[in-house]
Amino acid sequence: MIRFAIIAAALGFAGACSAQPAGNNAAELPAGAASPAAAPAAVTLTAADGVKVYGDYYPAAHPRALILLFHQAGSSAAEYATIAPRLNAMGYSALAIDQRSGGGMFGTNRTVEALGAAQDYLKAKQDLQAALDWAESKGLPIALWGSSYSSSLIFPLAAENPGKVKALLAFSPGEYFDDKTLVETAAARIDVPVFVTCAPTSEEIQRAKPIVDALKSSDKVFYVPKAGVHGSSTLIAARDPSGAANWEAVAKFLKAELG
Questions:
Q1: Structural domain containing residue 63
Q2: Is the pTM of this model over 0.85?
Q3: Average per-residue pLDDT for the chain
């Protein structure tokens, strides 16, 4: 069953998909976060088609799990520069990668820069798979965390890798691909705990709800906040000053499913 769901009353909230700031927000931490002890370690992965995928590894001192952080369109691993340290403070290691479909919204996307141009969303699934393959060597429970288009890709990724993933967190998922049932079909195969959230607009809710409804898992959360913005940006204070409240729902899910 759905363990808890919070539906916002104000569906007309205007902040869902507004233009996002450029630049790296690495100096900013969400409320209550501990400053990281050191800069993240650079990681280079190789996707199945040979593309080099660049990432940032944030190891926790005594990790309970490893969370793979995937960014939204036009973005990069720097989307998580303030989020990953907060996860470290909660006891989770994290890997954020630069997918081949991205850009400079929060900082340079090294993978796109090396390729010379961004590629399409679906090709980036190979990058997510490379991150999952890398994570297996760490011997920790693995959670997948996606933002916008990548929050949709984590469903087929998990479905294609049964037994490898402990939980999923999807921020603003939808059927963003040519196949308008791809995500829903994959969700019907997912039996691990899933947290889904979106901005409190009718458009975002209507995109996410069919995916939530299709989930095979009975341990699922559909959290629609009273205030929020598109994707993982809802947890970045510079993008969503009221997003601290949304951290509470995320933390509750992580503690319940990852310890």
A1: 2-16+34-258
A2: yes
A3: 88
